[in-house]
C-alpha cells in the first residue's frame, strides 16, 4: 500500500535551518494536496503548511516568512524548508498527503523529530 516516509529532522540551534522531506511510495495514481503538521509534547497536532496539486500554498501564521513548502511531483515528494528556526518550532513533524490509488485516501508519515536549541 501507500507509505509516506519523512526524513531530515534533527537538532539545530536557534536561527538555523533544516529541510524535511517526505516521499510517498506505492501504487499511486496521483497526489492531491500535501502538507506538514507538527506536534509538540503535551500539545495537539497542528497544521504547519500545505500545498495543493496546483502548488498553491498555505502556512500557519507562526511560520510564515520562515518556512517554505514545495513538492516534486516526479518524485512524489514534499519538502519543508525551515529557516530561522526557533525553540518553539521543536516538535515531531508529520507529512500528510491526499492520494489517489484505487481509491482516495489521506495518509500520514511516521514523523520526524525536530529539536531547536536556544
Structural class by sheet pairing and helices: mainly beta
Order of helices and strands: EEEEEEEEEEE
Our measurement of the CA-to-CA distance between the termini, rounded to an integer number of angstroms, reads 40 Å
Number of helices: 0
Oligomeric state of the chains present here: single chain
Number of strands: 11
Determine Rg (CA atoms, Å): 14 Å
Helix content: under 10%
Short description:
With 118 residues, this protein is mostly beta strands.
How are the secondary structure elements laid out?
Elements: E1 3-7, E2 10-13, E3 18-25, E4 30-39, E5 46-51, E6 57-59, E7 67-72, E8 77-82, E9 91-100, E10 104-108, E11 112-117
Q: Can you give a write-up of this model?
A:
The protein has 118 residues and is mainly beta. Helices cover 0% and strands 58% of the residues. It has strands at residues 3-7, 10-13, 18-25, 30-39, 46-51, 57-59, 67-72, 77-82, 91-100, 104-108, 112-117. The chain is globular.
List key phrases describing it.
single chain; 118 residues; mainly beta; 7-stranded mixed beta sheet
Amino acid at each position: 500500500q501507500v507509505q509516506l516516509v519523512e526524513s531530515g529532522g534533527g537538532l539545530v540551534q536557534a536561527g538555523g535551518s533544516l529541510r524535511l522531506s517526505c516521499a510517498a511510495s506505492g501504487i499511486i495514481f496521483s497526489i492531491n494536496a500535501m502538507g506538514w503538521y507538527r506536534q509538540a509534547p503535551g500539545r495537539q497536532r497542528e497544521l504547519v503548511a500545505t500545498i495543493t496539486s496546483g502548488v498553491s500554498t498555505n502556512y500557519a501564521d507562526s511560520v510564515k516568512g520562515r518556512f517554505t513548502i514545495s513538492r516534486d511531483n516526479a518524485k512524489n515528494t514534499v519538502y519543508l524548508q525551515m529557516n530561522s528556526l526557533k525553540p518553539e518550532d521543536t516538535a515531531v513533524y508529520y507529512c500528510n498527503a491526499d492520494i489517489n490509488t484505487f481509491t482516495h485516501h489521506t495518509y500520514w508519515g511516521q514523523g520526524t523529530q525536530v529539536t531547536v536549541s536556544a
